[in-house]
Every structure is written in C-alpha cells, then in structure tokens.
Write a structure and sequence with these properties.
The protein is mainly β. The chain contains 1 helix and 11 strands. Strands 1, 2, 3, 4, 5, 6, 7, 8 and 9 form a 9-stranded antiparallel beta sheet that branches. A two-stranded antiparallel ribbon has the order 10-11. A hairpin with a 3-residue loop joins β8 and β9. The protein is elongated, with a radius of gyration of 24 Å. It starts with a strand and ends with a strand.
C-alpha cells in the first residue's frame, strides 16, 4: 500500500498539516497440521475425529517513499529501510469428534462436538506517540476455560441419507461454529483503549 496522500485532516491539532507519506507492508504466514482419524467399530457405527493445529504470524512494516517526500521518517533515523510497526503471533487448536450411527438401511444419524481455541501469544507494537519504542503491547484478555486466550465448545447433529451407496450422500445438519478474530483484525488494537470489543463470532 502506497500512502501518498493524507486521508483526512488532523483532528487533534487542526492547524497541523504535517504528514509523512510511507509504504505499508503486511505479511501473513501460517503453518500447521491436520489429522483426521476415523474408525468403524461395527457395520452400524463409525467414529471420526479431527485434530488441527495452526500457528499464524502477522508482520506489519513501513518504509519511507523518498528522502524528500518522507523527510520526517528520514530525519527520525528510519531512512528508507523497512521497520516493524506490529508483530503478532497466535496458535489455533481444534479437537473434534463425531459419531455416526446407521439407524435403518441407508439412513444414519450423527452427533458430535468440537473444541476450538485461540492462544494469542505475542503482540509487539511501535507506539505512535513513541516511535522509537518497539515492544510488548496489548494482549487480549484471557477468557478461556481450558487452554489459550479464547476457546469454545461447538456441537453438531445431523441426518445422513445414502442416496446412492458409495457414491452420493445427502446430509442435513445443524451446528454452531466459532470464528476467532484474525491477526489482521488485531493490527490496530495496539493498546487497551483501542479495543472496541473485538471478540469471537459464533455462527449457527
């Protein structure tokens, strides 16, 4: 992103028109593992599981555009090199289990539950009022029951019809699922007073 123009006039000091054009660099990196074991105990019963773990990292960097246009950054000692503004890190865990029972012929029912969690482990930020300070910043409050900073249990239940054996399955299901805020959404929450209630979303 190339921030060449001021988006809006200064609010704190209206007569102050200082503005330093800069470039934005936002990098996302993820790695993890997904395991989906399944075991058939009998012709009428199958137990399936899902174990997924992922670690996300988000890095927000900035740099000056030129020595003339970005002179406040250059004079502050940043030059035209990239410097970190925000560095975030979080882990995500899901452990799910679902039992499928054959009721009659090609009609099955299933019940399951998943445990989903987010562990927000790192939030380093360069404060706007103190550009030379880059260190530990706001960490979302711990609000978990088992692990991490946020977690939840989400049930699922369904009815399955094997319309064409070994080829086509139709499933009607009802479930809940929790989506935790992404690291990009936390990018602007550099301090508690910037937190506007960013929290997990639950869909039904």
């Amino acid at each position: 992103n190339n921030h060449l123009f001021e988006k809006e006039p200064p609010s704190a000091i209206p007569q102050d028109s200082r503005y330093s054009p800069f470039r934005d660099y936002k990098t996302y990196m993820s790695y993890g593992v997904n395991v989906y074991p399944s075991y058939r105990f009998a012709e009428w019963n199958r137990l399936s599981m899902a174990i997924t773990w992922r670690e996300d990292q988000f890095t927000h960097q900035q740099s000056g555009i030129s020595y003339i246009q970005s002179w406040p950054l250059v004079s502050a000692g940043y030059g035209l090199d990239k410097y970190k503004v925000v560095h975030l890190k979080a882990s995500f865990l899901t452990v799910a289990i679902e039992d499928e029972i054959n009721i009659k012929n090609r009609l099955l029912i299933s019940f399951g539950v998943s445990y989903d969690a987010q562990d927000f482990s790192k939030f380093k930020s360069r404060y706007a009022n103190y550009p030379d300070f880059y260190g530990q910043a706001y960490i979302v409050r711990d609000n978990s029951t088992i692990w991490g900073t946020r977690d939840s249990f989400n049930p699922v239940a369904g009815i399955v019809v094997e319309a064409v054996p070994d080829l086509l399955r139709l499933k009607l299901a009802g479930s809940m699922k929790t989506r935790f805020p992404t690291l990009g959404e936390y990018d602007k929450v550099i301090a508690p007073w910037y937190d506007r209630g960013l929290k997990p979303e639950r869909s039904y």
